[in-house]
Amino acid sequence: FPSHDITGEWLAKWRKALFGLGVVITCFVYYLILFPAIATTAAAGSLPRYLGDAFLYLLAPLGFALCIPYFSSIRTHSSNIAVKVITQISTLSHALYLCHYSMIYIPYFYRLQCTTTIEVVAIYSLYLLFIILVAWGLHVLIEQPFMRYRDRTTF
Predict the structure, then answer these.
(1) Are 92 and 61 in contact (CB under 8 A)?
(2) Is the pTM of this model over 0.85?
(3) 44 has pLDDT over 70
C-alpha cells in the first residue's frame, strides 16, 4: 500500500488559512485583554472574570498554534543573520524559560518604578541582556554537559 501523509498534505494545503485564523484569534485575544470592561468590571472570583480568564488562556495558545504550519513551511538560507539569531534563541529557549521570571524578574525588576520612557527602555534592555547571559551560562554549564552524558549512556 502506498503511504500517504494525509495530515502533512492537509496542513500544507490549509497553512495560509490556518495562519489567518491564528492571527485573527490572537488579535481578538489581545483586544479582549486591552478591553477595559473585562479588566475593570469583572470582580475577582466572579463568573465573567473566570470565563474571561479561562477563554483567554485557551485562545491565546490556540492562535499561536494555528500559525505553526505556516511558519514551519518558510524556507530560508542558513547564512541569513536573522536565521542565526532565531536558531540561537531557540537553543537557549529552555534556559530562558527556566530563569527569566523566577530568578531574575521577581528579585530585581518587580518593584522597580520607572518614571520615563528612557528608564523603561534602559531597564528592559538590561533585563534582556542579563537574561540572555544567564540562559547562555545555564545552557553551556548545565544543559550541554547533561545532553553529552545522555548521548553517551543511551542507545
Answers:
(1) no
(2) no
(3) no
